[in-house]
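ESCALATION

Customer reports they have been waiting on this structure for their group meeting. Please prioritize. Original submission:
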Amino acid sequence: MIALLLVGFVLVATGVIARRVAGVRQQREITDLQRRRDALAADRVKLEGAIRDASSRARLQPIAEQRLNMRIPKPDQQVFLNRPAKKPSTPHDSL
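Update from on-call: job pushed to the front of the queue and completed.
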């Protein structure tokens, strides 16, 4: 009888220890994934800033002027076109 209780106790203790080891392993993996996610979020912020800087007018204007020979037009070179007025739509008869 005592041997049976001892075997049961050892089995339960082994199960508890195995569960704790698995929990610690999962927690370590979760922590690593959170660190990785935080590092990727920081990289994303850094890349968004680089994109914003690279696509700014101050950065693109000299490149467009040098490589494409483009210039900002003077006011007398600008032409504004008016859109034609929309005609009111009439309902179509489906008969």
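Sent to customer with the following note: Helices lie at 2-54, 57-67.
Escalation resolved.
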